[in-house]
Amino acid sequence: MSGAHSRKEYIVMFFVLTALTGIEVGLKYMPIARGMLIAGLITLAVGKATLVALFYMHLKSETRSLKMVIAIPMLFPALYAVVLIVESIARSAFT
Fold first, then answer.
1. From first to last of its 95 residues, what are the pLDDT tens digits of the chain?
2. Angle at CA 43, nearest 5°, toward 28 and 3?
3. Comparing C-alpha atoms, which of 85, 87, 3, 14 is closest to residue 43?
């Protein structure tokens, strides 16, 4: 059974997601520019969402076409978010 997940795999994913959450919290308290903070938090959130989808939603063992059915529609909200962030940065630069 190639799609089976072991208990060890779930435990490892738990600790990886916990570590990424800790990094997110720590990032908030670091003295970095707001734009870099936002970019870092978004990157970590996307990474965590990808891990959850691959391991807990079992997409890791699915066919490539099913993964694309999930991934392609998710590009549109991501693109929209990037556009809104860029617009917000541009508006704040000119006010």
1. 455 668 898 999 999 999 999 999 999 999 999 989 988 998 999 899 989 988 888 888 888 888 888 888 888 988 998 899 899 989 988 87
2. 125
3. 85
